[in-house]
Amino acid sequence: xxxxxxQSSLQLILYVCAVCLLYGIVKLVKHRRFYKDLPKPPHxxxxxxxxxxxxxxxxxxxxxxxxxxxxxxxxxxxxxGIFYLDLWPLGPAQLIITDPDLADxxxxxxxYPKHIENExxxxxxxxxxxxxxxxxxxxxxxxxxxxxxxxxxxxxxLVGVMADETMMFCETLSRYAExxxxxxxxxxAAKLIFDIVGKAVFSFPLNAQTTGSACLKDLQEILKYGxxxxxxKIPLTKFRAESRRKxxxxxxxxxxxxxxxxxxxxLKSENISVAKKNALSILDLILRDRLQPPSxxxxxxNSNPDPLPRxxxxxxxxxxxxxxxxxxxxxxxxxxxxx
Length: 339
What we know:
Helix content: 40-55%
Strand content: under 5%
Radius of gyration: 27 Å
C-alpha cells in the first residue's frame, strides 16, 4: 500500500489525472452504450453524433434553424419517426420526433414539461415566466389569458389587416426594384411582421413600414444583445451586452404598457362592449375580464387602485405537466416506440 502513497506533488497530480481519466472512460463507455439499441443515425463511439452533426451544419447558411439539420439527417439516413441524437459532452441528449402521430402522443395526449433549455434560451429575450417556457399553473394561467384571442374566428377577422400591410410591403419592394437599391430583406420583412402583429394586438398601426418604430428597434436590440450576453465568453462583453439588453427591455416594457393602458382607457371611456368576439383586437380579448362590470364584493374603491395590476403568476414547477395525465385505456394504442 505504501507504493500508492504519493511522495511528491508531481505524483499526486499524476494520480489525480489518472483517476479523472479512468472516470471519464467509464462515463464515456456507459453513456455510449445507452444508445446501443435505440433508433439513431450512424453513431461514433468517441464522438457520438457530434461529428455527424458537424458535417451537416456547414451545408446550410449560418444561424439556420436546427429543424433543417434534423430533417436532413432523417431523410439522408431514412430514420424512423422518432430517433435519438447523442451530443455528449457538448450538449444534452435529444429525442427527435418527425412523425405527426408520435408528436400527438407527447403534446396532446400527454403534455410533458418543457425542457429547462427553453427557459435558458428565451429568458434573455422575453424575460422569465413566458408561455413558451413555462409549465404547470403558470402555463395554465397564461394560456387562459391568451387562448381566446387565437380562436380561428378571431384570426379570420385579421385577414384584412394582413392584406393591407402586405400591400404596403409589396410597394416597398417595387420601389427598391425600380431604384436598384440594395436593402436588407430581413429588416424589411421584420417591419411587415411587426406592423401586422401590432395592429392585431393593439388595433392601431405602429407604422414600422412608414415612419419607423422605436419599439421595433428596442426588440431587435433585446434579441441582439441577449444572444451576445448568452454566448460570449468574455466577462466585460457579457456585462455590456446584458446592460444594453436590460435598457432596451425597460424601454420596450414601458412602451407596451403605455399602449395597454391607452387601449384599456379607450374601451372603458367609450363604453365599448367586449361581449362579442368579432372585430376585437387580441388585447381587447385579453382585457375582457378587466372590462366586465365589477361584482358587489369589489365595490370598495380602495381595494384595487390600479385597474391593470401585474398578474401574480404562480411560481413555476419544472417537472409539472401543463395538463394532468389522462388515464391510460385498457388497450394501449400508443405508438410502439413510446410504449
